[in-house]
Amino acid sequence: MDMNVLIDEMKQKTIFTMSPTKLDDLLKEVDIILERDTLISGYIRILKYGSHYLTQETSDKNEVVLRLFASKEEARALVNDHLETYDQMWDGCGCKVDYYS
Asked: What does pTM read for this prediction?
């Protein structure tokens, strides 16, 4: 996987989706900063490539969803928000993670 091409594509989009079959290739190219099992939708991660931070999670449509962030703190804020939503889902709130905005 050419990470420089991926980063350039991600700079043009709010989210980037890819097939789960490409996830292992992605993970080989990055440093995993944080990894948490959502217990509902696989792992949610903060990844680092060079000076770039990415979040990675799997949507309810079984797509790998990536977002690009300028800082680890911004990436952590999204991950914490989504983890909180997953916790609420376990409690039966009826809420959902919005993977596509």
From this structure: 0.90
Q: Reduce the DSSP state of residue 86 to 3 states and report it.
A: helix
Closest CA to 50 of 69, 74, 24: 69
- With 0-12 CB in 10 A as exposed, 13-18 as middle and 19+ as buried, what is 8? exposed
- Closest among 100, 48, 50, 99 to 74, alpha carbons compared: 48
List the beta bridge partners of residue 31. 48
| pLDDT tens for each residue of 16-36 | 999 999 999 999 999 999 999
- With a CB cutoff of 8 Å and minimum separation 6, the contacts of 12 are none
- Residue 28 in 3-state DSSP? helix
